[in-house]
Design a protein that fits this description.
Chain lengths: 295, 242, 409
């Protein structure tokens, strides 16, 4: 039955994209937990990761691993700059959360413009990390890059988990997210932790962008879709829970793929919005609330 | 001529401490001192400004005035730097990290003191003081009983190697027996040489151990009682009626 | 969690204040400089061409090229004394690819700049929204987009866009003449232009002996089109004819490869050369695009174009006149839209010169009398009955060979 094969094929690809949404969703959570800020510039990090990696690959001629690491470091630095130049001054003046969130939207637009001016407005892409493929399992094909996305994603999630539970700084970051005042009273520099949370979620977005670019294209404008889908993934997971966001992203990617098979391409976004509304109505604190552990 | 007592540099000395919430002045011109190894208590009715005083000292509330710690002017330091100096506040309501384990809370107490060996040693001391904590290490802080939570809050503060331990109404909501247990633990710490500044509403409990008391009403220090006048419940009652 | 209760680190307040102050000063200086430029622009003896462009938003790539094509032509004209002795001045307003902003932009250029003519970008909805009052003001509007709908508006509008059917003809013709592929899948985006093409694509297929075995839709920012491609493959389609522009073309190419569809070819819509290059890096010789002669540059079919037009090298001369300064200034940036923008200004100049007038009605009549005009991007043939200038198919099917766009044999 061809429909089942289509469904399976769509699910395979949907899970890959969904994992990337999940990583972006975790990025939302990391900053939100540390500060209460919803950083709408989150999608920008995905875009910058892909764009910078491409630039370093093609213009500077660097090998992929070097380009990927360098791009991620640069994007993390951009995350830090956003916090220092935009968020922190507003935060210190006691600006309302709403205004700060709007400011992150403005930052997104500004970075898009700067990207157009410096790197151009052309879509671009680069090769899979491993040549060859796809892997054929009967009628279903799996692109080699999907293994990189899944493997890289799993590695990052595991590293994050270790960081948040096993390291002194990671625990301090979680402490800030649960009770920032108490954390400060124990000598944890909350402002610096906020800076770190921006660096971390920028690096995460960048790595996601670098992994996913070979399966599609990147351009200054892709931040919107990734930002929105990452945001929805975070909401499904109960905004604040990193494992929830990851699961939310995978669920979202899979649901979108199924919606396209069953109802058509126009239903990809409809599916996303329906899921988000259902979650908000039925599980206001997230679908995965039961297993929630803050990070 | 200076008396010998004045020549000693106080552990903590605040002068002209003023704090506002918006336009409301919650604390006005407070002078306060804690000497090395001293046990001082701050008493006052609900809403008097005791918590505000603690937050002003730790700069978690906006404030003006001068604060010296062991002679160093620390007025301009941020909260976390004050903690690093050794001024540790156990907040009203305990301020635990509820979704983290007892062990994680204790470890976070030692954030500014990363020396492993010293940390293990302090942990031993905390367990000696509050043996129940050692049985609850893997449990979420939020799942502890009220008394255990307060023990954890104090234990966590001790992990930070405080020079001055400040506590904001630690006995609130506790069974009398547990409250006494906690206050006695503070007494033991003080006998070990730790300076303590204890905020309480209930005078009798605090006055058992304190050498000096400040009475706060309406955001001001209404009176300072020394060891001699402490115990005269007569004196205290008048402030509580205001 | 409330944030602002305790001081955090970061730049101290004075530093931040300083930054804001210097930013303010810079903005002020920029504003003064801009005001000064605007003042200079009021000089009475210039020939003003107003252009409403989507410099940001979805039309940005194309409309930036349109703007630079306009400016290249203006510079070339000014080097030779301008139009009727007047300096040619291009006034650009960003409509952010939004019709509402386009209306504001047009009104501003009409009333405060008092432009002699409009020459606007590809945001068709914006141009249509402004067409009624531009027509009432009797100012000719040359357009990158399709014509507005009402006859009285069309009277003042001239379209430099190749009719959509040419895109279809070029690709179908290639499939019929050069390949064995007879079963085709259409991949369509929801824009009005693509929907329009879809009508032609389904109607024309039988005439070329082709069968449409699948019609699938996608959204320009979809992360993949795997499902659609899977269905096309299942239906036996040998070629994907894509009706719609943008980076999605690269995604389609990627997906064809990821799904291991080793026989399937992709034929893209007219678009920017950069996109074609990226897609061809993915699919190699299974990626086809269409472009006008000028887009093939040196490797292009200008000889062939000249022969086809039977105009004895006039086409090649026109292409060179545009391409030489363009390449000098912009390197290998795409020429598809820019060449037609260039042509539109040159044709406008020719009309104004013939009319010996800078008045709107005179220029409009003159454009209708220019007759067949060999431009860099196409041959145009406006008349009082024909306001869509391109009447001969300017497209060739091409592929990238050794990284260069080359006409497919
Ligand atoms: N966050 C706040 N905003 C405004 N007013 C406050 C705030 N916190 C305390 N207050 C006011 O300041 C005064 C002192 O409060 P507090 O220091 O909490 O008293 P206490 O700890 O002695 O009960 C009270 O009148 C209280 O209403
Ligand atoms: Mg209080």
């Amino acid at each position: 039955m061809p429909d089942l094969i289509q469904l399976a094929q769509a699910l395979v690809n949907g899970v890959g994209v969904g994992l990337v949404y999940g990583l972006v969703g975790i990025g939302f959570c990391v900053i939100y937990n540390a500060s209460g800020i919803v950083n709408f510039a989150q999608g920008v990090f995905v875009m910058l990761g892909g764009m910078l990696a491409h630039t370093l690959l093609t213009r500077a001629g660097l090998p992929m691993p070097v380009a990927a690491v360098l791009a991620t470091v640069i994007v993390a630095a951009i995350g830090v700059a956003i916090q220092l130049l935009v968020v922190s001054p507003m935060w210190q003046r006691g600006t309302s959360m709403f205004a700060i969130i709007l400011a992150t939207l403005a930052v997104q637009i500004m970075i898009e413009r700067i990207t157009i001016l410096s790197l151009g407005d052309q879509p671009r892409t680069y090769d899979n990390f491993t040549p060859g493929g796809p892997l054929r399992l009967g009628p279903i094909t799996i692109d080699y890059q999907l293994f990189w996305v899944l493997g890289g994603g799993a590695l990052m999630v595991a590293a994050l988990w270790l960081f948040f539970t096993r390291t002194r700084i990671g625990r301090a970051l979680r402490a800030c997210s649960q009770n920032a005042e108490a954390a400060a009273l124990l000598g944890i520099p909350v402002g610096r932790m906020l800076l770190l949370s921006f660096a971390l979620s920028a690096a995460l977005g960048s790595a996601a962008g670098i992994l996913i670019t070979p399966t599609q294209y990147t351009a200054y404008s892709i931040d919107g879709p990734f930002g929105v889908n990452g945001f929805i993934a975070a909401i499904i997971g109960g905004f604040g829970s990193a494992p929830g966001a990851l699961a939310g992203g995978i669920l979202l990617g899979a649901a979108q793929a199924v919606a396209v098979v069953l109802f058509g391409a126009g239903y990809r976004n409809v599916a996303a919005l329906v899921i988000m509304l259902l979650v908000l109505l039925l599980f206001p604190s997230g679908v995965f609330n039961a297993t929630r552990s803050k990070a | 001529m200076r008396t010998p007592e004045q020549a000693v540099v106080p552990l903590l000395a605040a002068s002209d401490l003023t704090a506002r919430y918006g336009r409301v002045v919650a604390l006005k011109g407070v002078e306060l001192r804690v000497d090395e190894g001293e046990f001082v208590t701050v008493l006052g009715p609900n809403g008097a400004g005791k918590t505000t005083l603690m937050r002003a000292l730790m700069r978690t509330a906006a404030r003006t005035g001068t604060i010296r710690f062991r002679g160093e002017d620390v007025s301009a330091l941020p909260t976390h730097a004050l903690a690093r100096r050794g001024i540790i506040l156990v907040q009203e309501g305990r301020g635990l990290f509820g979704q983290m384990t007892v062990r994680e809370n204790l470890d976070l107490g030692a954030f500014t003191r990363p020396d492993r060996a010293a940390g293990e040693q302090r942990l031993g001391q905390v367990f000696a003081l509050f043996p129940r904590l050692s049985e609850r290490l893997g449990q979420m802080a939020a799942s502890l009983s009220g008394g255990e939570q307060q023990m954890l809050a104090i234990g966590r503060a001790l992990m930070a190697e405080p020079k001055l331990l400040m506590l904001d109404e630690p006995s609130v909501g506790l069974a009398p027996r547990v409250a006494v247990e906690i206050i006695e633990a503070l007494g033991a710490l003080n006998r070990g040489g730790l300076g303590i500044l204890l905020v309480e509403q209930k005078a009798p409990l605090a006055l058992r151990l304190a050498k000096r008391a400040y009475i706060v009403t309406l955001g001001r220090i209404a009176a300072e009682l020394d060891a001699a006048s402490i115990g005269s419940h007569h004196d205290l009652a008048q402030y509580y009626l205001s | 969690m409330t944030g602002a209760q305790w001081p955090t680190e970061g730049p101290n307040k004075d530093q931040v204040k300083e930054m804001y102050m210097s930013l303010k000063t810079t903005l002020l200086a920029t504003a003064i400089a801009l005001a000064a430029t605007a003042q200079a622009a009021r000089a009475e003896d210039s020939f003003k061409i107003g252009s409403a462009l989507g410099l940001t938003g979805y039309a940005a790539t194309g409309d930036r090229n349109w703007r630079d094509g306009l400016q290249l032509a203006a510079d070339a004209l000014n080097a030779k004394g301008g139009i009727l002795g007047r300096k040619v001045e291009i006034i650009v307003e960003d409509n952010r690819s939004q019709p509402q902003d386009a209306v504001v932009a047009y009104r501003k250029m009409l009333s405060s700049d008092q432009v002699n003519a409009f020459d606007s970008g590809c945001v068709s909805a914006g141009n249509m929204a402004a067409a009624s009052f531009v027509a009432r003001a009797q100012v000719p509007m040359l357009l990158c987009s399709i014509l507005p709908q009402k006859p009285e508006e069309q009277a003042w509008a001239f379209s430099f866009l190749p009719p959509p059917t040419f895109e279809i003809d070029a690709r179908y013709g290639y499939l019929r003449d050069r390949t064995q592929i007879r079963k085709v899948g259409l991949l369509i985006d929801p824009t009005p232009y693509s929907q329009l093409m879809k009508g032609f694509a389904t109607r024309l297929a039988p005439q070329y002996g082709l069968e449409i075995v699948a019609e699938e839709t996608y959204k320009p920012d979809d992360s993949d089109v795997n499902v659609q491609l899977g269905r096309m493959n299942a239906a036996g389609a040998g070629a994907v004819v894509k009706l719609g522009q943008g980076g999605s073309t690269v995604t389609v190419a990627k997906n064809i490869r990821q799904l291991g569809l080793d026989k399937m070819v992709l034929m893209a819509s007219t678009d920017d050369g950069g996109i074609f290059k990226s897609a061809s890096e993915v699919l190699g010789d299974r990626f086809y695009f269409i472009g006008s002669a000028v887009q093939f540059g040196d490797a292009g079919p200008s000889e062939k174009a000249a022969n086809a037009d039977k105009s004895n090298g006039a086409a090649k001369a026109a292409i060179d006149a545009f391409l030489t300064p363009w390449v000098a200034k912009y390197g290998d940036r795409d020429t598809g839209q820019a060449s037609r923008a260039y042509d539109s200004v040159m044709l406008l100049a020719k009309a104004a010169t013939a009319a010996n007038s800078v008045a709107g009605p005179a220029i409009k009549d003159a454009i209708e009398r220019v007759g067949a005009y060999n431009g860099a991007g196409a041959v145009y043939d406006f008349s009082d009955k024909q306001h869509v200038g391109i009447t001969k198919n300017p497209y060739f099917v091409g592929q990238f060979v050794n990284g260069r766009p080359t006409v497919s044999k």
